[in-house]
TrEMBL record:
Chief localisation class: membrane
Organism of provenance: Planococcus kocurii
Compartments in which it is found: Cell membrane
Membrane topology: Peripheral membrane protein
SMART domains: AAA
Span of domain ABC transporter: 6-246, 252-463
Protein name: ABC transporter
Keywords of this entry: ATP-binding, Cell membrane, Membrane, Nucleotide-binding, Translocase, Transport
Entries under Gene3D superfamilies matching the protein: P-loop containing nucleotide triphosphate hydrolases (3.40.50.300)
Family to which this protein belongs: Belongs to the ABC transporter superfamily.
Keyword Nucleotide-binding listed: yes
Amino acid sequence: MPEEIFSLNGVSFHFPEDSKKTLENLSFSVCRGEKLVISGPSGCGKSTLLYILNRLYPDNCDGSIDGEIRLFGKPASDYAPGEINHRVATVFQDPDSQFCMPTVEEELAFTLENLHTPFEDMDIRITAVLELTDLTYLRKAVIQSLSGGTKQRVATACALIMDPEVLLLDEPLSHLDPYTAQQFVDWLEKLQTRSSLTIVAVEHRLSSWGSFFEREIQLDGDGRLVVDQSFTQREPVLFPKRYSAIRETTALRAEELSFTINNRQLLSSLSFSVERGEIVVIAGPNGSGKSTLVKSLCGIYKKSTGTVESKGIGYVPQSPEYLFLTQQVAQEVAYSGASSRSELDRLMTNLRLDEIHNAHPFAISHGQKRRVAIAAMLADKRPVLLMDEPTSGQDAAALLELFELIDQRSREGTTLLIVTHDMEFAASLADSVLLIKGGELTGKFAAKDVWQNERLLTLHHLLAPKGVADLAKSFA
């Protein structure tokens, strides 16, 4: 019989401030060497389940657990705090939450120090894991200077250097460009085959994994187990056809925009303009300068040269927590005071926030946090809205609602610039695509000219959108 790594019997989890349980009556086992995905709607408790498996919960929160949990054949309660973590490594959804040191090398060394690794062995192990993850060139890099996707790869390297038996991954593809995501899945497949590593992942982008997973556990909106079966490959979300709402009025213009920090040029003399009502997708490889560009456009980063002309810009960051100013979701969405009560109610309903309207913005799931930030910026009614990875952590229903909201705002005259790695979402909405590589603007292209240009796609680590029926005709 295969060895059971995790065994849950009638497990429920409850935060004292919540009226209902986050997870309810879960029973399942995970065997050594399995490749398992946990799916379900945003906010259903998927990440909480991971934190139970690695003993982060309840050891580091006020929540309470009922039922029986066994890890490697022993009751979970028999493990001292932190004892299990050299056998069960975790890559969190927000990689910034697990970094303690300034550089990649120091972060890896810090991990080894916590494992009491002899000093003379550290350099060999750091070199080996950087080669394994193709990150050797970042050994001396400052972590906070890296893109979100690159940070995700560094976090994975920090997990693997522990030589774990189990790897827990929370939305590992959410910040990766399509090409890098495909490479990550292929690389993980080879790693798992070679080492018999047990892999448990929380994921919404199931279509990006092909046949990697063997088994799927699906939770419903109440944190109950509704599916436990062999994994079946998924098709991407299909979006309705959208009609352009561009007006011949310039809403934003950037001229010779550049940004340099610590003698390192991150953006180099970018010039482009965007019309009122236009939806522009900003795309390119991880670390190409996409987030730096939107931060420079809205003034978070002080540009080194150039000008930005616009009558008002709103910004939804990649880490939505940076926006939050209140202690309640409903207050956060209404904070600007620019929308009427009926408009706020529609936003809350459309983005499925009415069910968590009294929750603290920091106490909800990552996908829900992102929807709160999006709702707050939409309620603010700025003429130009910048969104950095708005689809991250969103289930299919949320993606469709987001599509409808963005489409509606565009028709009303709002101009949107969206950084995204989700090519299906991009193909459904984009009028134009700004392609960036190495901090330089390749150009601004009509969307239809990008999806059919293999050279441009390959150069910018993009993949042609899947699941968009008869794409060429839809743009004709």
